[in-house]
Design goal:
8-stranded parallel beta sheet; 16 strands; 3-stranded antiparallel beta sheet; single chain; 2 domains; 16 helices; TIM Barrel; alpha/beta
Length: 383
């Protein structure tokens, strides 16, 4: 993997870059659709490429349980198994272990958990998480980490941080002593933790930077903490994480959140919001999000967004898509995911163009002026 910063915004910490992987170059800042189980729900690889996806996510925990790493390795890796030719990033499973708190036990050695499929017991260690991701053949792997819940007390967060740093070192040692299985180079990112405690976030970022990972993620956010605290923690991390290496804010977020995080110097994002919300009938537009199920769209024959060039906006009206949702037709769910991903990728593309042309601050202001969202309009974070 190689990462090169292309342009730096003068009024903020926003930047553009090129992330080179074995499965293609990625222009940053980039949004990565979530394909937890080796697929972005309801969409084909061709459709993902058509809407502008450069890289997608897979999840170690879910793919390990089903269909199993043996199946995927026998297929030639996750790229061949899923027929996805571009880059893949795999999460280590740490967040899923956090979200299944009632079904797991954490120790310094690793995590013992019960499968949510059949109740069987499994052990996930830092070394095992690396082994699984090598078998998946992802371009970018993540260390196993412990994500403390929000809220938690500082003593618990500090104890958790010691474990996360130990796991990061063990993951890195295992990674450096292993060989890839499919003829191309993989890379490994560390994950900064520390909950919403500034001193712990600073300590975590500095500790992991000293380990000299190829890239860094900011984890443990977007789990219920107030937005000001989220951006404060992200700002502390980006100020410390080395500029020549990619920075990835995990689980982020709404369109206005992406803008603010880009202004802080973040390069990579992922979130289920565009696809999950799209399947529920929330469509993101340049004028703000709309709920297509609302009665006001029953006789609205305009496209979802007149500024959008996606398949849904080119071919169908709001009234028709509303009809699909009320009729329980699968096409409605697919159009929701397609449109929202297209919007997210177009947003990131325009962000990149504005940074490259020295107009990011103007673009940011114009976006908020047009984006009719109470949350967006009340955003006061400075980059």
């Amino acid at each position: 993997m190689e990462f090169h910063v292309q342009h730096q915004d003068f009024a903020s910490h926003a930047r553009t870059g090129i992330l080179k992987t074995a499965h293609g170059e990625i222009c940053t800042p980039v949004f990565m659709p979530v394909g937890t189980q080796g697929t972005v729900k309801s969409l084909s690889p061709e459709e993902l490429i058509e809407v502008g996806s450069q890289i997608i996510l897979g999840n170690t925990y879910h793919l390990y349980l089903r269909p199993g790493t043996g199946v995927i390795e026998a297929a030639g890796g996750l790229h061949k198994f899923s027929n996805w030719t571009k880059a893949i990033l795999t999460d280590s499973g740490g967040f899923q272990v956090y979200s299944l708190a009632a079904m797991r036990k954490v120790s310094n050695g690793g995590v013992t958990f019960q499968s949510h499929h059949d109740g069987s017991y499994h052990e996930l260690t830092p070394e095992r998480a690396i082994e699984i991701q090598i078998s998946l053949g992802s371009d970018i792997m993540m260390v196993l980490d412990e994500c403390p819940p929000y809220p938690c007390d500082e003593k618990y967060a500090a104890q958790s941080l010691v474990r996360t740093h130990s796991w990061a070192q063990r993951s890195f040692t295992k990674f450096k002593s292993s060989e890839p299985k499919f003829g191309f180079t993989q890379t490994l990112f560390a994950i900064v933790q520390g909950s919403t405690f500034p001193a712990l976030r600073k300590q975590s970022a500095e500790t992991l930077v000293d380990m000299n990972f190829p890239g860094y993620a900011i984890g443990g956010l977007s789990i219920g903490e107030p937005k000001p605290a989220l951006f404060e923690m992200a700002s502390i991390c980006t100020a410390i994480l080395p500029a020549p290496k990619p920075r990835y804010l995990m689980g982020m977020g709404k369109p206005e959140d992406l803008l603010e995080a880009v202004a802080l110097g973040v390069d990579m994002f992922d979130c289920v919001i565009p696809t999950r919300n799209g399947r529920k009938g929330q469509f993101f537009t340049w004028s703000g999000p709309i709920n297509i199920r609302n009665a006001m769209f029953k006789n609205d024959f305009r496209p979802l967004d007149e500024r959008c060039g996606c398949y849904a906006c080119r071919k169908f009206s709001r009234a028709y898509i509303r009809h699909l949702f009320h009729s329980g037709e699968i096409l409605g769910l697919r159009l929701g995911s397609l449109h929202n991903l297209y919007f997210y990728h177009e947003l990131m593309s325009q962000i990149r163009q504005s940074i490259d042309s020295g107009k990011f601050d103007r673009f940011r202001g114009d976006f908020y002026n047009a984006y009719n969202s109470d949350e967006a309009l009340s955003q006061t974070t400075e980059g």
